[in-house]
Amino acid sequence: MTIGITEIGVIFNVVGSILLAIRVKMLLKWICLVLDAHEMSITALTQLVNQPRNTVPMVSGMTVHLNNVIKKEGSWLLVLGFFFIFVGVILQVTGVLTKIAG
């Protein structure tokens, strides 16, 4: 069995899709953490209004961490994922056109 250009294109598409899935998983994890911190802060504010003493900590600065993930690690995974998918599609199209012409 020989591996042709079309099969290499499929492999590139799979790698690109995996990279994009990893990026989405990272983003969802951080979005959930930010939402949890937001919910905790709302609870703390509600307690502060209703009681003079606050028992729940006030959380701040979570958006800074989310922005760091989006800008640093997430950007590279996004670029690499789309690059692999783009190259994979080009290789697949080239393979199909080669089979049609030959």
Report how far the terminal alpha carbons are from each other.
19 Å
Low-pLDDT segments, ≥5 res: none
Main sheet summary: none
What percentage of residues falls in helices of 4 or more residues? over 70%
Query: What form results from the Cα inertia axes?
Result: rod-shaped
Structural class from helices and strands?
mainly alpha
Which H/E pattern describes the elements?
HHH
Radius of gyration: 23 Å
Query: Count the strands?
Result: 0
Strand content: under 5%
- Helix count from the secondary structure assignment: 3
Average residue pLDDT:
84
Quick overview:
With 102 residues, the protein is mainly α.
Describe this structure in words.
With 102 residues, this protein is mainly α. The longest helix has 46 residues, at 5-50. It contains three helices and no strands. It has helices at residues 5-50, 62-71, 73-101. The chain is 83% helix and 0% strand. Helix 2 (62-71) packs parallel to helix 3.
